[in-house]
Amino acid sequence: MSSIGSSIPDTSSLTAGATTDAYSELTSQDFVKIMFSELSNQDPLKPNDSNTLMQELSSLRSIESNVTLETKLGDVVTQNQLSTAGALIGKYVGGYTATFDPTQGLVSSISTSANGPILNLSNGAQIPFANIAQIVNPPSGS
Length: 142
Known about the structure:
Structural class: alpha+beta
Number of strands: 5
Number of helices: 2
Mean pLDDT: 79
Strand content: 15-25%
């Protein structure tokens, strides 16, 4: 069998302590290129098992689908949290700031962060959505 090195990702730039794995960066397109290179360069008297290659391609597709699904589910959770947090505008809440100091007040707006929605209170305090301890309707006079 001839070399198919031109189809395999370049790993020469990786150091021993690097956390990235060149094989984990293979896409299904890269795999198909490798598969076709291998099939076109194989010895006709000793053919490779194409079923094994197709099973590997199927596994790669399954992994890609799982990663895509995980990303989309994460997006849905974030949108749901933002929607729920938005419904708290005008409500009186109590909870803990990002530094875990207890605080309470009227929710005046919502902002987003890498860790999810943040409730901005009318008194200037901020409560991360995950740190809400209580939600109370404000008295009718306020």
